[in-house]
User: Which sequence fits this backbone?
């Protein structure tokens, strides 16, 4: 909560801008340069990870809209992504629909199904709602694996890579641009949403639903709207996975996926777009880093290397616990702390307890 | 009571509210006339907050009706949901501050403008043209409230971190931002020191005098209540015990026995 010194906003437009301070705009500029330069410098291995992170960011932002911003816990993330992935895949496979329209369709279908499964939120809150969305997860999974005529059941769908201006998006390098643009658009849309009327109403529902209703917010309508908006982006992430992997299989969208995404937004920061990105990056990179570390240890410490899968699981759990205990506001808060530190650097002073 | 229905204001007619076997309100009738400053007093548990909750739609009375007459139109509030009642211009504050405590003062006040804004999900997400202009237009309105309540310095502070007295002001500000026809204030001065009380009372009087808003105040501070209100309604055990000007109420034997006590008579008669 630092105040910007020497920056005076003389118009409301500049006061409600997403980047209000020159330093913020500079950081954004640097980030954009890194994002643009990255694919030219990175190896295919890292490009693949970057693509996964970008897709996970879209999914994490989607989930954060519902859980972090509106306070409605959802365990149905995996299933909603499956709806997006299967809808996009089936539209392309069976009807030959180009990827563009089929992604839009996939998002809308996921949005509708998410809204439907959001209806218990009229009566249920907190853990009870979580159980209701767990039911959504199981029901959707069951439908996908048993509706063999349409989804192919447990068989995987093979989806062709999308085509853009006659170019096949079949390499990591080409796909990178697609996902980066869509992830940026998702982030921008969400940032705008939460500086205007609808987003504020979502936050109001989260913070104090009685006060929200008394101030004129139709609480149930806004809960459903949150489910719809959230599922839209979750569906987008699902559809992107379908086109990126070229394979759609229900095994990618189980309850475990839901938990992974919840972990992303908890570790990254609930109710934060930046946090969604940080969390998506960390949870995506963690297994890769551990695998790499294992490879290095293969010769020197084969005993540790052989335990790698277990270490992966354990460290995943450990990280969540550590964040919950030491920084429940997640990586985005850590980032804020760093910024606060440099804001007054080198003339830092302490004002009150726990402030640096 | 000659045709009270035609007068602008809020008409509470024979309202009864029960929770299981407990009667919270029994046959409560009184009118709030537009333009007056009405105080609602009574001992703890008399049903003051229950009346406000019935008006703002949080409780639904089993019997009776609540009607709002504003701008020449009569609305039956009895069966409306809270958000619909807010849209008709009824705003309120709560006894135990119910703010959006993770949000800034500005965002809390902007939520007060919610019913006056139109933006949907798509236009909000794109945030261009009309949506941007709407946000700015309503921001201007909110800045007027901020100026009025002297909240400039804490505009961007997170509400949960503010001291109690400031939170009370922000909650008043959020209700004022709605530009309400009727403003229900549930113990706006509770827990404040005399200085804060005085400025809160001053704000309520200013709202009363400078705008078309009709304030309804519940409070236990009799000195302030008797000073600022035009008319007082006294509740006891869920029933209307008395109704009248502050002077009448101070002299009312029933009210003295049930609520005010002997001490207040001396203070009252000394004025």
Assistant:
């Amino acid at each position: 909560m630092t105040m910007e010194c020497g920056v005076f906003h003389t118009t409301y437009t500049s006061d409600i801008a997403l980047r209000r301070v020159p330093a913020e705009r500079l950081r954004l500029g640097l980030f954009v340069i890194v994002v643009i330069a990255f694919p030219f410098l990175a190896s295919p291995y890292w490009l693949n990870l970057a693509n996964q992170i970008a897709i996970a960011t879209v999914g994490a932002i989607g989930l954060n809209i519902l859980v972090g911003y509106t306070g409605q816990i959802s365990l149905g993330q995996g299933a909603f992504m499956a709806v997006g992935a299967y809808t996009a895949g089936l539209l392309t496979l069976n009807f030959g629909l180009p990827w563009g329209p089929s992604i839009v369709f996939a998002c809308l279908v996921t949005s509708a199904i998410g809204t439907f499964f959001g209806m218990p939120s009229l009566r249920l809150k907190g853990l009870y709602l979580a159980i209701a969305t767990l039911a959504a997860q199981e029901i959707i999974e069951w439908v996908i694996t048993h509706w063999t005529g349409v989804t192919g059941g447990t068989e995987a769908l093979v989806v062709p890579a999308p085509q853009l201006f006659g170019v096949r998006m079949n390499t990591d390098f080409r796909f990178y641009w697609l996902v980066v643009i869509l992830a940026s658009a998702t982030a921008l849309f969400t940032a705008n949403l939460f500086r205007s009327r609808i987003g504020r109403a979502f936050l109001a529902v989260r913070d104090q639903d009685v006060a929200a209703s008394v101030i004129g917010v139709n609480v149930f309508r806004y809960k459903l709207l949150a489910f719809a908006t959230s599922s839209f982006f979750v569906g987008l992430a699902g559809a992107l996975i379908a086109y990126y992997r070229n394979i759609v299989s229900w095994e990618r969208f189980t309850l475990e996926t839901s938990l992974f995404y919840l972990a992303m937004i908890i570790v990254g920061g609930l109710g934060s777009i930046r946090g969604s990105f940080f969390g998506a990056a960390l949870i995506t990179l963690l297994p890769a880093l551990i695998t790499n570390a294992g490879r290095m240890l293969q010769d020197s410490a084969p005993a540790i290397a052989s335990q790698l899968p277990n270490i992966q699981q354990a460290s995943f759990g450990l990280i969540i616990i550590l964040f919950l205990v030491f920084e429940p506001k997640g990586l985005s808060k850590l980032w804020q702390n760093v910024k606060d530190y440099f804001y007054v650097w080198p003339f830092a002073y302490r004002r009150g307890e726990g402030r640096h | 009571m000659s045709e009270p229905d035609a007068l602008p204001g809020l008409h509470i007619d024979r309202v009864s509210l029960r929770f299981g076997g407990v009667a919270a309100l029994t046959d409560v009738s009184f009118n709030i006339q537009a333009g007056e400053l009405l105080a609602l007093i009574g001992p703890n548990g008399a049903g003051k907050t229950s009346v406000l909750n019935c008006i703002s739609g949080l409780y639904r009375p089993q019997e009776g009706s609540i009607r709002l007459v504003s701008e020449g139109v009569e609305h039956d509030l009895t069966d409306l949901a809270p958000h619909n009642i807010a849209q008709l211009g009824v705003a309120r504050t709560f006894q135990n501050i119910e703010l959006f405590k993770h949000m800034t003062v500005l965002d809390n006040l902007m939520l007060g403008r919610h019913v006056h804004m139109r933006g949907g999900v798509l236009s909000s997400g794109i945030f261009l043209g009309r949506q941007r202009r709407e946000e700015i237009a309503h921001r201007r309105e909110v800045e007027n409230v901020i100026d009025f309540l002297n909240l400039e310095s804490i505009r961007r502070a997170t509400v949960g971190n503010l001291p109690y007295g400031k939170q009370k002001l922000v909650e008043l500000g959020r209700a004022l931002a709605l530009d309400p026809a009727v403003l229900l204030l549930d113990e706006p001065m509770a827990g404040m020191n005399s200085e804060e009380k005085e400025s809160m009372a001053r704000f309520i009087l200013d709202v009363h005098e400078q705008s078309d808003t009709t304030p309804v105040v519940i409070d236990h501070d009799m000195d302030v209540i008797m000073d600022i209100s035009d008319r007082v309604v006294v509740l006891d055990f869920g029933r209307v015990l008395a109704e009248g000007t502050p002077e009448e109420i101070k002299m009312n034997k029933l009210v003295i026995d049930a609520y005010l006590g002997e001490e207040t008579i001396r203070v009252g008669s000394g004025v």
